[in-house]
């Protein structure tokens, strides 16, 4: 069995921006359990979630009234004999909507970096966390704790590419970020749009919503626009035509590059394992042949 390590050990940084990480397995259970007055607990400044559903909080409050709080919250002590919430914001808010005046809490002496990490980790485990809120939480950790994207990826057990793409959402126009928060566009749409100029972001976002484009459709449209904007003098018409045919057939962006001697390569771009499998299927290679 793997040795369990404390968060203080797992998240310790020897130098700013250098992450020495072991797997965090017990951040939800280590600490002293207490019953604390709700009035003595302050919200976390590192909470990435900006909006809570009143309906969901009322439902959780009703559950707490009936069966009690199954999982305690996590807090850390403050200098003024108060406590700061670290994890369990929904449980804390929902309990406040009941007649209860106290709440079960695990008290842990955490520094700012550890508190921010736990708060972000808890929210990343929930599928309903807004992707824009996630990006803001990641950016705050980069700025405040002087981490690199690679440090943050290791800290949260995510790939560096995923961190980079998520942070890219902050480069979107505010109205497009709002569309994602409202569910009118997905994070996948945003990851494609943030690379474009603001003018193209706005135009394509509006078209994607009006025509209910999937992420793959938006990607294909962007690729076609890039191909169309390439000066014909710079590229062979036959190569451009073949790229278009391949993009239509495989439903993903395709790029053909060749040198004057006739050598070159063909690139198929995908953003998920599902898209990769779809490409392989179109090549006649079903999953049972490579899994």
Automatic annotation (TrEMBL):
<dbReference type="InterPro" id="IPR003115">
    <property type="entry name" value="ParB_N"/>
</dbReference>
<comment type="function">
    <text>Involved in chromosome partition. Localize to both poles of the predivisional cell following completion of DNA replication. Binds to the DNA origin of replication.</text>
</comment>
<dbReference type="Pfam" id="PF17762">
    <property type="entry name" value="HTH_ParB"/>
</dbReference>
<keyword id="KW-0238">DNA-binding</keyword>
<keyword id="KW-0159">Chromosome partition</keyword>
<dbReference type="InterPro" id="IPR036086">
    <property type="entry name" value="ParB/Sulfiredoxin_sf"/>
</dbReference>
<dbReference type="InterPro" id="IPR050336">
    <property type="entry name" value="Chromosome_partition/occlusion"/>
</dbReference>
<feature type="domain" description="ParB-like N-terminal">
    <location>
        <begin position="34"/>
        <end position="124"/>
    </location>
</feature>
<dbReference type="InterPro" id="IPR041468">
    <property type="entry name" value="HTH_ParB/Spo0J"/>
</dbReference>
<protein>
    <recommendedName>
        <fullName>Probable chromosome-partitioning protein ParB</fullName>
    </recommendedName>
</protein>
<dbReference type="InterPro" id="IPR004437">
    <property type="entry name" value="ParB/RepB/Spo0J"/>
</dbReference>
<comment type="similarity">
    <text>Belongs to the ParB family.</text>
</comment>
<dbReference type="Pfam" id="PF23552">
    <property type="entry name" value="ParB_C"/>
</dbReference>
<dbReference type="GO" id="GO:0003677">
    <property type="term" value="F:DNA binding"/>
</dbReference>
<dbReference type="GO" id="GO:0005694">
    <property type="term" value="C:chromosome"/>
</dbReference>
<dbReference type="InterPro" id="IPR057240">
    <property type="entry name" value="ParB_dimer_C"/>
</dbReference>
<dbReference type="GO" id="GO:0007059">
    <property type="term" value="P:chromosome segregation"/>
</dbReference>
<dbReference type="Pfam" id="PF02195">
    <property type="entry name" value="ParB_N"/>
</dbReference>
């Amino acid at each position: 069995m793997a040795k369990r390590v404390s968060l203080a050990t797992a998240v310790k940084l020897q130098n700013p921006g250098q992450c020495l990480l072991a797997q965090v397995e017990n951040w939800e259970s280590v600490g002293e359990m207490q019953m604390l007055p709700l009035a003595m607990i302050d919200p976390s400044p590192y909470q990435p979630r900006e909006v809570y559903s009143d309906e969901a909080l009322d439902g959780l409050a009703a559950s707490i009234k009936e069966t009690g709080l199954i999982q305690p919250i996590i807090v850390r002590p403050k200098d003024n004999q108060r406590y700061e919430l670290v994890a369990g914001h929904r449980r804390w808010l929902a309990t406040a909507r009941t007649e209860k005046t106290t709440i079960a809490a695990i008290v842990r002496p955490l520094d700012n970096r550890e508190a921010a990490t736990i708060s972000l980790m808890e929210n990343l485990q929930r599928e309903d966390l807004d992707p824009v809120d996630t990006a803001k939480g990641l950016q705050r950790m980069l700025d405040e704790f002087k981490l690199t994207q690679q440090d943050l990826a290791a800290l949260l057990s995510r790939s560096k590419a995923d961190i980079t793409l998520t942070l890219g959402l902050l480069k979107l126009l505010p109205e497009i970020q709002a569309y994602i928060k409202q569910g009118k566009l997905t994070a996948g749409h945003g990851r494609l749009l943030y690379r474009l100029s603001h003018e193209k972001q706005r135009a394509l976002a509006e078209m994607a919503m009006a025509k209910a484009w999937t992420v793959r459709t938006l990607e294909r449209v962007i690729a076609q626009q890039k191909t169309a904007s390439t000066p014909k003098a710079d590229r062979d018409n036959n190569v451009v035509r073949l790229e278009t045919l391949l993009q239509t057939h495989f439903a993903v962006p395709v790029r053909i590059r060749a040198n004057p001697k006739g050598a070159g390569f063909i690139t198929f771009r995908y953003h998920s394992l599902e898209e990769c499998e779809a490409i392989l299927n179109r090549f006649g290679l079903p999953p049972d042949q490579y899994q």
